[in-house]
Inverse folding.
């Protein structure tokens, strides 16, 4: 599919760790080189097929845990084989590299390495939320989100689809209840809950989806944790509803 | 000298070996033929532990069973820093105990699935895996929010505790029971922090 998908929160792709992800059943090893660039590779060493996500990032290379072969950031080219220290690895010895990019607080990948799909034109979000893993296809997750976002008793965001894997939740046009104090209280208590939320769906495979959600608003450091927890609760409610659906 | 009645492939025995070595406590191993010999069900072993479970320790003639209880004992008796199981405040200690219970339940879900897949034990395999995933979701969420507050470990504080040691083996061995850790990024980061502890040791399947 000629399209970019968020495959990890930037913050969770750290030096010294290989993030395990997947897209349409293709497992990925997502990792950050010392020089800062991110990589999204097929999660499989081209040598013996071991998962690269159990490997180690060393400088600008990823080292496979099995036989110590090293692969360079960017190209995926094998640079060193410990069993053949003097031999220059051939140009064909490469990790399978997916196109990747980093923006809006996420690492993005595309399964089509040669296609030049433009990155989605999103507003710069203020805060990325905890990604929630759902045991359901992306389509079901999207349909559930369309019913609205928020907990019972809250002002719920009205969700619409921008495309099959991207949804946006926005406050309904605010209508006065005619009670000024109730209006003021609602505005004050649900400010964080009412900020627009983007939902980026990452299909891990045909049965599982990650909801990456981000708030298109800046959140103060003091509020941050409470906002993260509140949205996590709402997203877990979405997950429970999708997974319990017949 | 402590004697550990041990089985190399047991996660519950491994967690005791791990803490012994993190604390630098000398011990000797008595290898029990758990599989295929079922030596843990033999009459001599049942005299040691009527529950027929590993591990068991013998510390100068004093016998203690139950992996979680052994961690509590070793930390209380031999950890001079008292950081592995701090006991000064009731809430902190109770939190550790809650996670020890969680770890014990993991042995019954993720651990049982692994015994089913690798040593052919009877189990409702699908229910074991479902229960393990339910527990992993709880642990991942807990660790993710701990990270947001700068916490690296299961319990609050700068240092790991026996709660981390108790939960670690069943988590790390889960894939041998068909339980993927891909949906649990915070768990995966935590396992790497455990593996970087000074004195960390491996077992087959954990490297």
């Amino acid at each position: 599919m000629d399209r970019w998908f968020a495959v990890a929160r930037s913050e969770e792709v750290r030096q010294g760790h290989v993030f395990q992800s997947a897209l349409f059943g293709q497992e990925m090893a997502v990792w950050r080189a010392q020089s800062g660039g991110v990589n999204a590779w097929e999660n499989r060493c081209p040598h013996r097929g071991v998962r690269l996500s159990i490997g180690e990032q060393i400088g600008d290379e990823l080292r496979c845990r099995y036989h110590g072969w090293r692969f360079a950031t960017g190209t995926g080219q094998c640079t060193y084989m410990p069993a053949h220290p003097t031999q220059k690895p051939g140009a064909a010895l490469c990790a399978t590299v997916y196109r990747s990019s980093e923006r809006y607080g996420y690492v993005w990948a595309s399964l089509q390495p040669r296609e030049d799909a433009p990155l989605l034109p999103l507003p710069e979000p203020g805060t990325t939320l905890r990604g929630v893993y759902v045991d359901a296809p992306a389509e079901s997750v999207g349909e559930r989100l369309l019913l609205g976002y928020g907990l019972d008793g809250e002002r719920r965001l009205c969700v619409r689809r921008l495309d099959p894997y991207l949804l946006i939740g926005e406050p309904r046009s605010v209508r006065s209840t005619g009670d000024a104090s109730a209006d003021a209280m609602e505005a004050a208590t649900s400010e964080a809950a009412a900020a627009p939320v983007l939902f980026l769906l990452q299909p891990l495979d045909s049965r599982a989806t990650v909801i990456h959600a981000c708030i298109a608003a800046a959140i103060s450091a003091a509020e941050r944790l409470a906002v993260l927890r509140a949205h996590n609760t709402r997203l877990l409610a979405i997950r429970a509803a999708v997974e319990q659906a017949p | 000298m402590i004697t550990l009645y041990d089985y190399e492939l047991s996660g519950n025995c491994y967690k005791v070996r791990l803490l012994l070595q993190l604390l630098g406590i000398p011990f000797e191993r008595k290898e029990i033929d758990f599989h295929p010999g079922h030596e843990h069900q033999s009459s001599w072993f049942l005299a040691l532990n009527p529950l027929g479970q590993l591990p068991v320790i013998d510390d100068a003639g004093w016998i203690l069973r139950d992996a979680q209880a052994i961690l509590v004992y070793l930390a209380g008796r031999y950890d001079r820093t008292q950081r592995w199981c701090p006991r000064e405040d009731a809430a902190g200690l109770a939190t550790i105990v809650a996670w020890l219970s969680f770890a014990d339940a993991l042995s019954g879900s993720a651990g049982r699935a692994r015994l089913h897949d690798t040593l052919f034990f009877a189990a409702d395999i699908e229910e074991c895996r479902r229960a393990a995933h339910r527990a992993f979701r709880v642990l991942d969420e807990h660790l993710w929010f701990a990270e947001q507050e700068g916490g690296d470990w299961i319990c609050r504080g700068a240092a790991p505790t026996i709660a981390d040691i108790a939960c670690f083996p069943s988590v790390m061995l889960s894939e041998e029971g068909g339980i993927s850790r891909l949906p649990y990024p915070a768990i995966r980061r935590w396992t790497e922090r455990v593996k970087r502890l000074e004195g960390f040791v491996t077992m087959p399947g954990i490297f």
Chain A has two domains: 5-110, 127-244. Chain A has a mean pLDDT of 89.
